[in-house]
């Protein structure tokens, strides 16, 4: 009888814990796209701060966190309306795959077989191709048994989708902690040898989205090297020190501290570049907004970080801010954790090959605080 009572009590406690966790996640149906349901998930932590996600592209659409005075604001571009999601920035906030960033000339060779991909950044492939994972309606579920509100998105990428070999099962789990951390856990497997590189493509403005430029944000990166690229943003294959270049954020600098100055016999326009992360760094990047006091830290197990500041403007002019209007020039930045661009064609870069029987796992954390 005692064992029965103990078991009943444990089950009751587990049920209460699950109920408490599930009450922190609200699901709303936004409509249908391609015959599939598109949903909006609202995750609420103990501090009352909000993370909003959608299964369209398994993407982040809103992050509400306080400033130094306790005033809350949204710090990421996005939309909570289906029509705006569909006509807005294709990549903003989305889970990117099968291969994040660029693959040169839309092709690569694996075990002597050349795979031709869909070119959508001519002549290259960008972020998985014309209909990459950012454009898919993922399966979704609230994670049961989680002590913090969490949602898992899943997708089956068929063999030869956008030209990539192998059927890949991918899941992306977002957990919104009481420490204002967005924990992103990726897991993938394949039935055929393939390449994989996944990231999240959120754009941030710590002033609050739609509230000015990001050049005054103070950036620090634990990256003493970067991968130089051609004008088409394809790596040359070199790995160079950032010292004495505009790419040096090993000590804190405003994002715009070198933009507009002369570099390599031209005017330096901004950043869309891959950094080689220092392997022992616990926090790979920190961004501080002196105006609001907001701080964002980036933590990852990936070897690279793509820093995007805007190159004369947002790359995609239709990025939507929280006011449902196009985002202004130079008003958001991205820090995308990743393997290096064009890795399948660069033998000197860390491998992105995934074999059958192997499990790809990766974790990235965006942590928000104030000072």
Describe what you observe in this structure.
The protein is mostly beta strands and 371 residues long. It has a single domain, classed as Beta-galactosidase, Chain A, domain 5, CATH 2.70.98. Helix content is 7%, strand content 37%. The protein contains two helices and 29 strands. The strands form eight sheets. It has a nine-stranded antiparallel β-sheet, with no helix packed on it. Strands 1-2-3-4-5 form a five-stranded antiparallel β-sheet, with no helix packed on it. The protein has a five-stranded antiparallel β-sheet with strand order 19-18-23-26-27, with no helix packed on it. It is globular, with a radius of gyration of 21 Å. The N and C termini lie far apart (54 Å).
Task: Give the number of DSSP strands.
Answer: 29
Helix content: under 10%
CATH class: Mainly Beta
Strand order of the largest sheet: 11-12-13-14-29-25-24-17-20
CATH architecture: Distorted Sandwich
Any idea how many domains?
1
- Determine the strand fraction and express it as a percent band: 35-45%
Low-confidence stretches: 1-22, 313-323
What is the general shape? globular
Using only C-alpha atoms, the radius of gyration works out to 21 Å
Terminal Cα separation, in Å?
Answer: 54 Å
Give the structural class.
Answer: mainly beta
InterPro entries: Ald1_epimerase_CS, Aldose_1-epimerase, Aldose_1/G6P_1-epimerase, Gal_mutarotase_sf_dom, Galactose_mutarotase-like, GH-type_carb-bd
Signal peptide: 1-19
Organism: Paludibacter jiangxiensis
Protein name: Aldose 1-epimerase
């Amino acid at each position: 009888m005692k064992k029965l009572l103990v078991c009943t009590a444990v089950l009751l406690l587990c049920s209460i814990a699950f109920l408490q966790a599930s009450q922190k996640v609200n699901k709303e149906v936004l409509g249908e796209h391609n015959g599939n349901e598109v949903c909006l998930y609202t995750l609420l932590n103990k501090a009352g701060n909000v993370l909003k996600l959608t299964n369209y592209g398994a993407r982040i659409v809103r992050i509400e966190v306080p400033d130094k005075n306790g005033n809350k604001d949204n710090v990421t571009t996005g939309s909570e309306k289906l029509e705006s999601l569909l006509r807005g920035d294709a990549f903003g906030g989305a889970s990117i795959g099968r291969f994040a960033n660029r693959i040169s000339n839309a092709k690569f060779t694996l075990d002597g077989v050349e795979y031709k991909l869909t070119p959508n950044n001519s002549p290259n492939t960008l972020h998985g191709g014309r209909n990459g994972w950012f454009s898919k309606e993922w399966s979704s579920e609230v994670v049961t048994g989680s002590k913090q509100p969490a949602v898992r998105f899943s997708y089956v990428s068929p063999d030869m989708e956008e030209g990539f070999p192998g059927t890949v099962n991918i899941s992306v789990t977002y957990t919104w902690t009481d420490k204002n951390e967005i924990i992103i856990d990726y897991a993938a497997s394949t039935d055929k040898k393939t390449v994989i590189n996944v990231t999240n493509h959120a754009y941030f403005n710590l002033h609050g989205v739609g509230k000015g430029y990001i050049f005054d944000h103070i950036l620090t990166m634990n990256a003493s090297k970067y991968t130089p690229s051609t004008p088409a943003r394809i790596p040359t294959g070199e790995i160079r020190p950032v010292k004495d270049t505009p790419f040096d954020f090993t000590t804190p600098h405003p994002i715009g501290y070198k933009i507009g100055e002369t570099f390599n016999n031209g005017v330096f326009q901004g950043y869309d570049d891959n950094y080689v992360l220092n392997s022992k760094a616990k926090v790979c990047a920190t961004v501080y907004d002196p105006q609001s006091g907001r701080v964002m830290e980036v933590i990852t197990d990936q070897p690279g970080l793509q820093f995007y500041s805007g190159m004369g403007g947002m790359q995609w002019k239709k990025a939507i801010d929280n006011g449902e209007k196009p985002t202004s020039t130079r008003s958001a930045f991205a820090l995308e954790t990743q393997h290096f661009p064009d890795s399948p064609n660069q033998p000197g870069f860390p491998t992105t090959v995934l074999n059958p029987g192997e499990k790809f796992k990766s974790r990235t954390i965006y942590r928000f605080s104030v000072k």
